[in-house]
Amino acid sequence: MAGTSYGVNHPLAVKLWSRKLMSEAIKATWFSKFIGTSANSIVQIKSETSKDSGDKVTFGLRARLRGAGVQGDATLEGNEEALTTYDDNVIIDQMRHAVRSKGKMSEQRVPFNVRDEAKEGLKDWFAERLDVWFFNQLAGYTAETRTLFTGNQAVVAPDAYHRIFAGTGNAADEDLADTDLFSLSLIDKAVELANTLDHETAEGLVPLRPLRMDGEDKYVMFLHDYQVTDLRTTTSTGQWLDIQKAAMAGGQVSKNPIYTGALGEYNGVILHKANRVPKGVHSSTGAAIDTVRRAVLCGAQAAAMAFGQGGSLNKMDWTEELFDYGNQLGVAAGMIAGLKKTRFNDRDFGTIVVSTYAAKHS
């Protein structure tokens, strides 16, 4: 009986496995529910480099008009207002990894398919790496200088206007004491700041633009596990109970993927726990601070992501090769992509970093 077989690097097999790998890797990422092509996404996909050549996508922001306008029959000519625009860009580069078997005899000893396990291993590797990109960029984790771990571009520290520190009088991560823990009041302060950032305070400042969900404005906030424990175990009145009262209120929001896995909601902020929220950074030495974590409040278009030609959320490169006269199978996967926190006029655009003391609880 004749059988159908797709050998190493068969064109159809390559296309199938490349799609499978990328699709499964993205689904396995923590931040997949926040990616989209619309301006109402936390991570907005920029498609220019996936269609044309180039290694950078430049995009712009139009600032709000602030002129007084004219009233009645007052002359409008000569009182027009010039548009103010800012730009940012995301750089793309290639990232690859591979798995190689030791040989057919080694494969004979194990009850699994090396090709299948290679795909699973690479899926987990890419998913973890993309999550690291996401959190290092949004939190401005400058202690990580390897761009392979920061979205293929350098991380930029959060500016002074988009930062909040727990406690009183703290102005840097290293100032935080073991009493400066995460609390609901920090969410209130972050929301207030997000809504009141103003160009008149400093050039280029604009309020964070909330996500529009079911006719309501929402922000999303990411907290490290240590910060969540501090929040849950506080002895202050309300606190965690207030979050639980609002958790998934109304039922309809539970269908929105942004709510999937959420801790709950407080003051219009959907709270998510993520163990890859990065550590604090010493303002002088640039070293990581183990006892500090940087929670991040996000609005729409907090980050931008782009892919190389032919790449997308559904496709990456997949290559199989035989070595040593066909004895060893090598499987490689790669993608040309980049991810970056959005900034305009040297100001953060869609993020507010909230630093707190956060140590492991024994």
Explain what the structure shows.
The protein has 2 domains: 11-60 and 85-135 and 304-342, Major capsid protein gp5 fold, CATH 3.30.2400; 157-302 and 344-357, no CATH class. It has helices at 11-28, 48-51, 104-108, 114-139, 184-196, 225-232, 240-246, and strands at 35-36, 43-46, 56-62, 85-91, 93-100, 163-165, 211-213, 216-223, 264-266, 269-273, 279-281, 288-298, 303-307, 317-323, 328-341, 343-344, 347-348, 351-357. With 362 residues, it is of the alpha+beta class. It has 7 helices and 18 strands. Strands 6, 7, 8, 9, 10, 11, 12 and 18 form an 8-stranded mixed sheet that branches. Helix 1 (11-28) packs across helix 4 (114-139). The longest helix has 26 residues, at 114-139.
Structural topology:
Blueprint: H1 11-28, E1 35-36, E2 43-46, H2 48-51, E3 56-62, E4 85-91, E5 93-100, H3 104-108, H4 114-139, E6 163-165, H5 184-196, E7 211-213, E8 216-223, H6 225-232, H7 240-246, E9 264-266, E10 269-273, E11 279-281, E12 288-298, E13 303-307, E14 317-323, E15 328-341, E16 343-344, E17 347-348, E18 351-357
Helix pairs in contact: 1-4
